[in-house]
Amino acid sequence: MNEMILKSSVAGRARFKYGAFKHLDEKAFEALLGLHVDSFRVNRACASLVVYFDPLKTTLQTIIDLLQKRFETATLMPHVSSPAALYCPSCASCSACESKINSPQSWRSKIWSFVALCGYALYLFVSETFFGASAFALPLPLTAFVALAAAIPLLQEAYADFKAGRFSLHSFMAIALLGAIAGGEATAAFEIVFILRGGMLLEEYTAERSKKQIHELMALGIKKAYVLVDEIEVETDVSDIREGDTVVARSGERIAVDGMIVEGSAEIDESAINGRSEPAFKTLNETVYANTLVQSGRIYIRVSATGEQTYLARMIAKVEASLAQKSPSEVAADRLAARLLTLGTFLTGATFLLTGSWLRAFSVMIVMSCPCATKLAASTAISAGIAKGAKKGVLIKGGAYLEAVSQSEVFCFDKTGTLTTGEPKLVQSICAEGILAHDLLCTAALAEHHNSHPIGIAITKAAELAGFTCHEDNPSDIFAGLGVRLKDHAGDIAVGNAKWMAQNGVDISSLHVQSSQAFLEGYSVVYVARGSRLLGFLSLEHTVRAGTLAMLQGLRKRGVKHLVLLSGDEETVARAFGRTYGFDEVHANVMPEEKADVVEALKTRYANVVMVGDGINDTLAMSKADVAISFASGGSEAAIEVSNIAVTDSNPDAILHLFDLSKESLRVINQNYWIGTGTNLVSVAFAAVGALPPVLAGAMHIAHTVGIMANSSRIAWSNDNNS
What we know:
Layout lengths: L2 E8 L2 E5 L8 H8 L5 E5 L4 E5 L7 H11 L4 E4 L17 H7 L4 H24 L11 H9 L1 H12 L5 H14 L3 H33 L5 E6 L2 E6 L8 E5 L7 E12 L1 H4 L5 E3 L4 E2 L4 E13 L5 H12 L5 H28 L2 H10 L3 H21 L2 E3 L2 H7 L4 E5 H5 L5 E7 L5 H12 L5 H12 L11 E3 L3 E4 L6 E4 L1 H6 L8 H9 L3 E7 L2 E9 L6 H10 L4 E5 L4 H11 L3 E3 L4 H12 L5 E5 L5 H6 L2 E5 L5 H6 L2 E3 L5 H36 L5 H29 L1
Parallel strand pairs: 1-5, 14-21, 14-23, 21-22, 23-24, 24-25
Antiparallel strand pairs: 1-2, 2-4, 3-4, 6-7, 6-8, 8-12, 9-10, 9-11, 9-12, 13-25, 15-20, 16-17, 17-18, 18-19, 19-20
Helix pairs in contact: 4-8, 5-8, 6-7, 7-8, 8-10, 8-13, 8-26, 11-12, 11-13, 12-25, 12-26, 13-25, 13-26, 14-25, 16-17, 20-25, 25-26
């Protein structure tokens, strides 16, 4: 079987099932996982692997990636859903997720069970306050049974922790609960479980809300589409469409698949993909994406991806999975929560020993049962930031990257396609003696015909407008950062920059004066040669994206120390651009590996380096940066895949929004820590002297959690105002 199944997952433990596990010895698993896990166990009889790991040092996703890389044909099939669905921001040291897998419970049933607990709490309050009745007067204390029934999920989690050899918050609470009942304090026991269930419900709501927001933003709600079968359009469930099928889409319909147009043309609203407000005209052999809208026209699409494999679905999955990747603040929160658990245990025991009062000890325990809220301090702010970014068209693939943006001292930018529109236009043709401008352009287009680089596309389009049709079937050899070369029967054609001409033995000195003038005017110069003879050069102009200068100045005002331009353009063009837009450092005429070398050198001098790019030639530099940001509109899929953050509409303003969002998230995390620490200190002091009974301690627990959640939710409001 090719399906690797994630059977269960709790913090620190995961179990996988895959047929190939039967044939791999323990030494192979040790070599694969040894550095990432504490221990593992292989059961070849049932083809299963159990791994134990430290959630503070590695993540479940890291282990999944290692296994899938080793077993390349394996398709991960989570037992419940995706690994991201197991995300719970407050249970890194508990077994809540395992309980959800083993005994799934709907959100509605959880609400109703808590409503029932609220009803019983009201009964206790009314009977004891207004009628003087006591639940302890019953022969069989009803309150004790209600508390035990309500605590079943807690007791299950505590038992799972006990089997795994962990002492967690749930173990702590379960011991206290059973101790309260055994000591005749059934009401206090009920209060403990009532408060805990309420807090867990709030925390789960926080996690689910972030994932739901992302799904609502970009969910594909198309159920049916028309498939061409024997020249007849047949209405078909989207789930039944397969790669290679031909789907028909017409005016007013949303496209249900990714694919290539094989017939027809249409104006398509692609704002869900690239954020552009104006529609794009798409015709034969161009790619279209699921969830885009055909505004006018009719197209036949050969399907390349459906369902979870579409571009949009993959982007949703990456953003959602990012919620499960812990940021530095979340890891710090985990450590703090673990220390608070130890401190809470000590303070509870010390209070009982010093005062001899169960009620005071319970009050201290309820107050200190807030490590969950401590974890929420970071995770809710990060979740809110990621969800807010998605609303703005900024897809953030992990909390660590969100935090790092505003802590970065250097921002590096590619020029073509990133700071410029990526759609250059031909301005002039300068010919060598004896060469006609039309022949120069057509020769260049012959070599550039199969090149997807923006300059190559611009040259090809200009030639087509001039009436040239290319019949050349042989693709050119493309040399990133240099140019292209086509082997032609009349002599090889080379098109590219001055460095490329030198490598092909072409002397360009005869046009030095004209090319220097073009450079001074800020044009990109593309030389054209056949064999060793220079035919001339083409001057192209790149349109700078609106808001570029304001974005660069905004970064400077926000404290960014160093702005760097990395460009494949000639030295004169790049430096002129750098002076105009205020860059501190300009690297011109650089190859992809040279861009990466610059980024690595900057990392030795500055804290955190951000690389912003859009093309394949940027991916190596992006992979070396601390944070890689891709401009997704028109950008290469390789750049989008390697990036940590994708700006879907390629708007420079989004960089400032992202920076502000990062800073605001960190500020809210710090505020949340103060809220948690301050309420803990004050409440413990009051509880220890008997001024905070268990009911009020429980209220403080809820207020503690709600306060942190409410403070994190302000990120959405504040970021709107920053915009």
